Amino acid sequence: MPYILIQITKENVSVQQKQQLIKEATELVVRVLDKDPATTFVVIDEVNTDNWGVAGETVSMLRRKQLVHNDEATG
């Protein structure tokens, strides 16, 4: 009974994109491990960007810095 946990930052992921993740993750486990799709569980956990860190900073802060940098580069 496979359990697949996909963790992503909460940043405008559409219902269609989530459905595609669930479908293709299930297909991968069926194809590679020969598991029954009816007993394969996929959970998508959307984490607030304030609660996800990379390189010592939250994703929220990194996104803000990226916006400032892009504004400076184009302005």
UniProtKB/TrEMBL annotation:
Keyword set, alphabetical order: Isomerase
Gene Ontology molecular function terms on file: isomerase activity
Superkingdom of origin organism: Bacteria
Residue stretches making up the 4-oxalocrotonate tautomerase-like domain: 2-59
InterPro entries associated with the record: 4-OT, 4-OT-like_dom, Tautomerase/MIF_sf
Active site: P2 (proton acceptor)
The protein's enzyme class: isomerase
Enzyme Commission (EC) number: 5.3.2.-
NCBIfam families the record matches: taut
Family: Belongs to the 4-oxalocrotonate tautomerase family.
Protein name according to UniProt: Tautomerase
Origin organism lineage: Bacteria, Pseudomonadati, Pseudomonadota, Gammaproteobacteria, Moraxellales
